[in-house]
Amino acid sequence: MAAVLRSGRSFGSLQNFFSRTAAAFGPRSSLLKASPAYSALSGVGSSLQRRGYQSHFSREVLDSYNLHVYARARPCGLSGFHGRYGYPMLTSSYRQFSTTKQLQTEAEPVSSTAPEPTPSLAYRVLRLVKLTIYSLGAIGATVLILVAGFFVYDSSTYKDLDDSEDVEISELALNPRIGGPKNLPILERYLDDEDCDVHKLSMSKPRLVILGSGWGAVALLKNIYPTDYHITVISPRNHFLFTPMLPSATVGTLEYRSLVEPIRRICRRVRAHYLEASAEKIEFDEHLIEVSQKCPDGSERRFYVPYDKVVVAVGSQSNTHGVPGMEYCNFLKTIDDARDIRRKVLQNFELACLPGATEEERKRLLSFVVCGGGPTGVEFAAELYDLLNEDLTNTFPRVLRNLVSVHVVQSQGHILNTYDEKISEYAQERFLKDSIDVLTNARVQRVENDRVIFTQKDAQGNPETKELPCGLCLWSTGVALCDITKEIATTVKGQSNRRAIETDSHLRVLGTPMGEVYAIGDCSTIRTNITEHMVEFVKLYAVKNNISVENCEITFQQWRDIAYNIKRRFPQAAENLRRVDQLFTEYDKDNSGTLGFHELSNLLRDIDSKMTSLPATAQRANQQGEYLGRKLTRLARARESLAMQAYVDNDLDDLVYKPFGYHHLGSLAYIGNAAVFDLNGYSFVGGLVAMYLWRSVYFAQSVSFRTRALLFMDWLKRGIFGRDMTDV
């Protein structure tokens, strides 16, 4: 019947065919009413009628169709089937049916006046109960499977100690030889050099020593191949710290362990060695690094670590600007700093609840001063306000809420001064709405035990001395050099910057043997003095035309070639060399169509003055670490071909890889249940939606799946149970 319906035949033609067939069989058709085919056809007809299609089926038609089917299949064993009532009659009937004129090609829907029957209430309740039982059963089965899978996995993590194998240890690892300028032990072999095949293979490779465990060092480790170098990481901190979320840990929004990743776990991926110690000095002539390690009993051990290449990625420390009273301030650079701040905030609230404390003393204890209006200071002030407003006021006496005050002291005209002006204004308006006091154009003079003394310009521009009582003072006003970076910047010839280690565009430390010492992250800066290399850029064209450099006239095409070489050697200058045609026209003072030597000097000098140093951010350190990891891998792969005599005195870094180019991806900041985005000229500010975007960005940048899982659980716990306010 389905075939007939698909062919487009009308129900009237079907009825005609089945009526003639029923007349031929007579009463014998009643024997087939209980057949499955009868029930199936009845169901089809009922379904079509419910959908509103015109049907001429009748009992006689259905009986005739059943009889026709059973006549072809012969399942019921009727007598005389082949004779008078057998196949000849069916065949003639079918032929007559097939020659019937097709009345219509498609069934036409008609409206049905009969209402569709409504299921009873008991039926609906029973169906709902069944669905509920099935759903709960499926959920329960899934939970049981997950729990069982967890216990199976957990049981596989417990292993017995296998001490049947002997461990090979080099004699030099147990008793290192003595040498170097100070006759200290030289660590040439490690205790785990024989632990695996990769360690054994890397023993014959160049020694790469990485100083530090921050953003730059970890990015380098993630982008280097294990068997290309014999890698050693030296850092007094045995973990990587996710610094952008550190302000959240000071108030219990995030736990400390959610922001750290063990450095040994990162080193294990590239089979690197790790030493928990501090690098004190680099002996460039002897290729030795002096390392000190403090013991639990207070004693100190010193030894040397040899290297073929060394990467300085030790970061920076807080810049005090020579302000007295830093012993009364808290900093925010490490996990210990965050722990101290949380403990002090909670202790101040507890002290304010004690009997006998005067109102003035309570105001001082609950006054929090942030010195510095950069991202760290602003985010800490916002997190502190959230803690006070959402958690502490619900667990401490409500009268304390009126005594709490948060102050931000900023030396510039507005907070977040490195961001777009629109973002700075929005942040200040947000803080004003949250009753956070922002003091701009103010400079701290000194910090005392219970107050911060500063000067602020009045309406006439005259400095006026003021003071703020404080129970906690956070100092966050820039970065300064660590001890080893200060030693390199002040003793290495060729270093002229006393605030950072100067490198070239390949991140090689200036004044050191080429290709041996690199510096990345906050501790370094790239020297981009284009005017010093101007003669080098012009000399190629002067020699080609057999004229002196001073008398050289540069055409527009030659200027384009010079600009291309400048951008290739100093990628940071590309922003200022976008429109070379406009620059050529602007500095061609005599309209001669060429640039003389003095005109070219003025052009390059102005470009040089417009170039700024790279920001001291995690983003910059991460990009430099990734770049250096890829370049060192490329150098290792090309080591054999570059070992030829013709390349010994050449710039190998420049031969195998391009100079470093920083690409600013934008800046983010949290300002209290809201966030701001500065994305290369495009700014975005908002409330909770922007805050969730801010979280998503840092969630994706987290170093491992483990830390991402912990971050998610901390945010979930904060929403359900609130922030952790225990003093531990």
Structural description of this entry:
With 728 residues, the chain is α/β, with parallel strands linked by helices. Helices cover 42% and strands 15% of the residues. Strand 17 (451-457) and strand 18 (463-469) form a beta hairpin. Helix 2 packs antiparallel against helix 5 (87-98), helix 3 (36-50) packs across helix 4 and helix 12 packs antiparallel against helix 13 (359-365). The protein starts with a helix and ends in a 7-residue tail after the last helix. 31% of the residues are buried.
Largest sheet: 5 strands, parallel
Question: Could you state the oligomeric state of the chains shown?
Answer: single chain
Query: Order of strands in the sheet with the most strands?
Result: 7-4-3-11-22
- Report how far apart the termini are: 80 Å
Helix content: 40-55%
Classification by helices and strands: alpha/beta
How large a portion of the residues is in β-strands, by DSSP E? 15-25%
Mean pLDDT: 80
Radius of gyration (Å): 41 Å
Low-pLDDT residue intervals, each spanning 5 or more residues: 1-15, 50-63, 65-112
Number of strands: 26
Number of helices: 25
Features:
alpha/beta; five-stranded parallel sheet; four-stranded parallel sheet; disordered N terminus
Structure described in brief:
With 728 residues, the protein is an alpha/beta fold. Helix 9 (215-222) links the parallel strand 3 (207-211) and strand 4 (230-234). Mean pLDDT is 80; it is low at 1-15, 50-63 and 65-112.
